[in-house]
Amino acid sequence: MKKEEKKLTAAELPIGGIIEAGTAVNFHTGSWRSERPVWNKEKCINCLVCWISCPDSSIKVVPDERKTSIIAGIDYDHCKGCGICAKECPPKVKAIVMEQERK
Amino acid sequence: MSVKMIEVRWHGRGGQGAKTAALLFAEAVMATGKYIQAFPEYGPERMGAPVQSFNRISEEPIIIHSGIKNPDYVVVLDSSLMESVPVTEGLGKGGKIVINTSLSTSKIAQKLDIDISQVHVVNASQIALETIGRDIPNTPMLGALVKVIGTLDINGVLEDIETKLTAKFRHKPGVMKGNLTSIKRAFDEVKN
Amino acid sequence: MIKKVYSKSKLVAKTGNEVIAEALRQIEPDVIAAYPITPATEIVQIFSQFVADGVVKSEYIAVESEHSAISATIAASAAGARAMTSTSSQGLSLMWEMLYIAAGLRLPVIMAEVNRAISAPININADHSDTMGTRDAGWIQIYSENSQEAYDNIIQVTRIAEKAKLPAMVTMDGFITSHCMEVVEVYPDADVKTFVGEYKPERYLLDIKKPYTLGAIDLQDYYFEHRYQLAQAVRDAKDIILDIAGEFERTFGRKYGFYEKYMLDDAEVAIVIIGSTAGNVKAVVKELREKGIKAGLLKIRVYRPFPSEQIAKELAHVKVIAVMDRSDSCSGAFPPIYSDLTASLYSAGVVGPKILSYVYGIGGREFSSEQIVDVYEKLGKVASGAEKPFKGVEYINIRIK
């Protein structure tokens, strides 16, 4: 069980509904997943279609030695397991497949 | 209202400068040390339509902000307005009317059905044509009004208007001179 | 001779619009975004000329509607700028949703508002329907009786808004004040600049070292607290308003408070009013006093926050009060000032005065000195028991049947 979050009072809250920037990183939506995408580095052609399609920015990209972006893996802290990456991966390539989440 | 307060109503046609005259008059009178108000008839303005503007002059701060119903002085910039607008409305027995016209005081008094002592005439259009070169009677009418009111300092008024016009017409000194001459002439020529 | 309150000031003959533009030139906000509308047009027209002539360094954003004007002003304020706008009537109506956003985001946006009736039917003259409609949007509202007050109020409100972290509007009556040339004392530029100081926001969006999220979703678990904060901020603004009025008086000599009392302390009958008509009422009170009638006036200057407790105290001794609203309410009950005032007195346990509700001056309708005298006569008759107070709302100078 998760611990109960302490809710701030009107006196404690920053005014105007202001919240810190970039807090979505701290919110691990990866726990919502029932299926997980599994990426095969050998099959991947680095077309980046999965990276463009991912609604949660969970396809990790790094520059290679020629400073071209290549896929580096999947951010399982934030991937919700929607399967769009697997669906969009070209059929001839099939570098991403969905598997049952093991919990 | 207060005994010391003077209320003026200007009649003109949209575009003739009735509002400008009231504003210019108020600024000049303020320069002589009196409290003033100047405001147009509230509403949309259209060229040629009969329009009104108003002045209040007082030794005391003016606190009221309402329309003027019983003016002490009425100024008519365009004598043709006498046909269509009740220019004497609200003007009491002691009130005075100053009209831009070539007609005599007796003729005007007859036309407006008021006592001749209340009527003052000046041919401001002609003065404007001769001094400014255009039929803009609002500036000379300032001079006529100062004369008729009697308690205002014409030199103070002229000084202030000279300052204002110098700034406005700094590229056309002739226009400024013509305007000042027109005020002086109307001051001298207005008659009862 | 004309008396000056502040020795270093200059006497000018200016209309309400001109003098607001003059104050904006002196305050020189970072950003002004506005869309012209009668009778407020001249304010931004004159100011945009100052910008074009290089007289001020302010950024002027010409927008395509009032909704964009207030949106740009809010955005500029969020970015850390001192941002202002000006509007009237339908313009304010078009700003509607953004008014609540300015307040909810706690941004000190400043607005010079010129009171005008709202459509339909179309009308360009003065009444308070436009700003009264926005009275509970979380904005500070300060109403001005004349051009001098409008000038002084806009200078003060710049400080008030920034300290209270609330948007604020200063209003004056359309045409009656906005287009009336009067004698106004204008303070030296340097003194106004010193008084308003430099705006230093605690946090602002363009601070890349300390970024934050503004306007995020806020549901059942937090929204209520944020709205409470806003309501409390408006309550807390009362002290700020008085502090800054005190500083203004010490600097420029003119005294301001939540309201102005005119012969009220020993009054038996009193009128409560807002805006330019207060002057006309003062003139009538003076005449009635000369006849021995104990008439008085309470002119409300600060309508939001509503000085509830203070007004209840000031009016507790009055036998009969007329509350004059220059806007009607389609609530089926009572107009705004009457509702606020009666609730305030009742809540404070002040049940002595009989309180009558009048609506006047809608769409610029004349409310003459004679009619003001009539109101005081009615109050006198109710006070003496000769007549009963009427129920509901009484309309002045209207053809009903």
Q: Please, could you describe this protein's structure?
A:
The complex is a heterotrimer of chains A (103), B (192) and C (401). Chain A is mainly beta and 103 residues long. Chain A has helices at 49-53, 84-88, and strands at residues 19-20, 35-39, 59-63, 69-74, 96-100. The two termini of chain A are 15 Å apart. Chain B has one domain (6-189): Pyruvate-ferredoxin Oxidoreductase, domain 3, CATH 3.40.920.10. Chain B has seven helices and six strands. A six-stranded mixed sheet of chain B has the order 2-3-1-4-5-6, sandwiched between helices. In chain B, α2 (81-84) links the parallel β4 (73-76) and β5 (96-100). Chain C is globular. The model of chain C has no long low-confidence stretch (mean pLDDT 97). Chain C folds into two domains: 10-252, Thiamin diphosphate (ThDP)-binding fold, Pyr/PP domains (Rossmann fold, 3-Layer(aba) Sandwich); 259-395, Rossmann fold, CATH 3.40.50. Chain C has 13 helices and 16 strands. Classes of the chains: A mainly beta (103), B alpha/beta (192), C alpha/beta (401). Chains in contact: A-C, B-C. The A-C interface holds A 7-10, 13, 15-23 and C 104-107, 165, 203, 211-216, 218, 221-222, 225-226, 228-229, 232-233. β2 (35-40) of chain B pairs antiparallel with β8 (181-186) of chain C, so a sheet runs across the interface.
Taken in chain order, the helices and strands of chain C follow as: EHEHEHEHHEHEHEEHEHEEHEEHEHEHE
Strand order of the largest sheet of chain C: 3-2-4-5-7-6-13
Instruction: Give the radius of gyration of chain C.
Output: 21 Å
Bin the helical content of chain C: 40-55%
Number of helices of chain A: 2
Average of pLDDT of chain C = 97
Give the biggest sheet of chain C: 7 strands, mixed
Unreliable residue runs of chain C: none
Question: Can you give me a brief rundown of this structure?
Answer:
The complex is a heterotrimer of chains A (103), B (192) and C (401). Chain A is 10% helix and 22% strand.
Q: Descriptors for this entry?
A:
heterotrimer, A: 103 residues, mainly beta, Alpha-Beta Plaits, two-stranded antiparallel sheet, elongated, C: 401 residues, alpha/beta, Rossmann fold, 7-stranded mixed sheet, 6-stranded mixed sheet, 13 helices, 16 strands, 41% helix, 19% strand, globular
